[in-house]
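Running low. Got one?
___
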Amino acid sequence: MRPSDSATKRLLFLQRLLQQLPDMVWMKDTQGVYLACNAQFERFFGACEAQILGRTDFDFVDAALANFFLQHDQKAMRADHPLVNEEKITLSDGTEVLLETTKTAVHDDQGELLGVLGIGHNITQRKTNEQIAHKSLARYKAILDTTLDGFWEMDPNGNVVDVNDTFCQLSGFSRQELIGMSVWQLDAMVTMSEVKQRITEIMQSGGQVFESRLSRKDGSTWPVEVSVNNAEPGANRLFAFFRDISARKKAEHDLKQITHFDLLTGLANRSQLEQAINDEIHPLRHDLKHTAVVFIDMDGFKAINEKMGNTIGDQLLVAVGLRLRRVLRGGDTLARMSGDEFAAVLPGFNDQQDCIFTVQRLLAALQQPFHIHDREIQVSASIGVTFHPQQQDVTCEQLIRQADQAMYEAKQAGRNRFHVFNLDHDRQQLQLNAKVDAILNAIQQQQFELYYQPKVNMFSGQVIGFEALIRWNHPQLGLLSPGQFLPDIEQHPVMADLGQWTLTTALDQLAQWQQLALPISVNMAAPHLLKPGFVESLAGYLSEHPLVSPQQLELEVLETGALENIDAAIEVIGRCQRLGIHFSLDDFGTGYSSLNYLKLLPVETLKIDRSFVTDMMNNPRDLSILDGIVRLAQAFDRQVIAEGVETQEQGLFLLLLGCQQAQGFGIARPMPAADVPSWVAQYAANPNWAGIHAMSKRNMPALFALVEHRAWFTQLQQAFHLQQPIPELNPKQCKLGKWLKANDDTLAPEIHKQLTQWHQQAHRVAADIAQLGVLQQRDEPAPLLQELHQLSDKIQSELLRLMSIKK
């Protein structure tokens, strides 16, 4: 190939290369005349190369821009190195672009200046991107400096590269002090090796969120939530954001205090106590140690609180907690349950007696006086104790309930003592709870019904009222009388619910029985009567029944219940009587009444218990009690009524004693409300009772002699049939014999002689029967017993005749 051909090819190659370049390329001589340009430059002037060559910038752009180009061209030609400028131009199509121009002087081989070579690179998009990035960076920095979270930028070694203003404010360090510091110098909870380990994990995983505590310049620390992220893959930078969680931690602490601790005393609360118990009774624990659950109730705290005020009461509770805490061991849990109740979990005892010693120390500690605000306060406590393990698995709730129940037993036994839980008693309590639940359900399901038993005046034959008696229409057991479900719950608060139902139902019935105009008496349990608000509730019931006169309602209160709190009973009864309500003292004679109590209690009627009525004709003691009750009622101007009258003879005896009012099966059985009107309409008085007056005091010994004889005869029969002691066989020593002797002058001679003869014959026959009993000839005395019966009937008939009573 010829040299000229080779040069031509190189020239063509360079021309093609020049045309393919994406940048503008041009060359001017020293006067600014274009010597060459490529296709990209042609777009600038909107002309082809042939039109551009030989011409200057003044031929294509305005003079100002042309002079701008000329000045930079001349500057580049004078310089000994390429010059780079940014020049904004407008293309021929109107598009504005920003060029980064590189201009350099061009010399020939002899060093003669030929002109200037220019290369223009379009940097419009790059500049736009840089501006966007700059604005983003400014916004980013503004956000970092104004956010409430602290910020670090770290290198892979854990050194701080940058921080925001917030972190400076939180830490107390300046930006200059922080930059270059290591993380472990600021994080109070990590070592240098832990920092490196965590950074490695973050670089691999991309990020972590965790909690820590950072150190301030003054040496204090504060809790933070840390969020660390790898800035971008391969960037070798970590971004860490720190949120101050002091408020959250305080809230968590406060919530924990509320959830697990008593706010007043700082002791554990019920929740934490339960956790401690559950930890000790966990089935995976296999040690043989004993754990005690102790329930402590302050004696008389309510009175102290009311007398001295809540402030002193609260301070006393705090002092009690501190004193109890000093007695217990480090591993024990002491909690305040509520009010003046505390509980403790005492684990790890080898035997129960060791724990009892601790309980005794608790009692002794509380017996020492407390000094609150210069006041000496003396208190005591009742403590209940239960143990784990037991023969059967028990839950936490069961243990707490057992200890609580044992505490109640200690309080019932006199306070200032402890009581250990008894499982048999617990079973009884469970049975009681089941009965209470059944009764509450029965009230809700309307299974109860009132039956009504008439009360009559035996002397006049008039119906004087009814007693309301509750019955339970049990879905499985049928109709139940009060004796089948009330005895077990007499001291339980559910009696108030049952009493309320009975009261309102009786008032409803009185409203329906306006034409009968007969009062109703309702049995009232003492706990219900003495319950706060009872009088107000009763007044409310009466206001709901405007057709019912309060005088139509009588409340029957058990003697024993009324006398347990005599002062409160007097006050409540008096307030009810001012409403118009009447009161009777039920089962009178069975309790521990005294003349003083009878004088103080403002009841209108004494109700004789049926047990005295049942045995009065065969038991001289019961007859004496009956006679005494009737005389007491007369002395204190009280009405008297006997219950349990089942026979005509019982009614006669009561009338002879002076008791005219009665009720019982001998008059009528309790009946449903629907049967009452027809019974009243059809009632016929017993003619054998009508007009019977009380015996005179002079004739009363005859009645007692009759009962003494009956008792003697009954005892003789029991001696023979049941091998019991033989009664007095000497006719002069028995009660009837003594009465006959005492009335030798008052009785008619023939009557006295006849009674004495029958009496002596009866004793001779009795002696023969007794002799047979000793010889164990028990098949032979039938004729003798028949003879004895006949003699006894003669004696009783004559005594009744003497009292002017027909047998």
Notes: Residues 749-774 form the longest helix (26 residues). The longest strand covers residues 462-474. The chain has 30 helices and 27 strands.
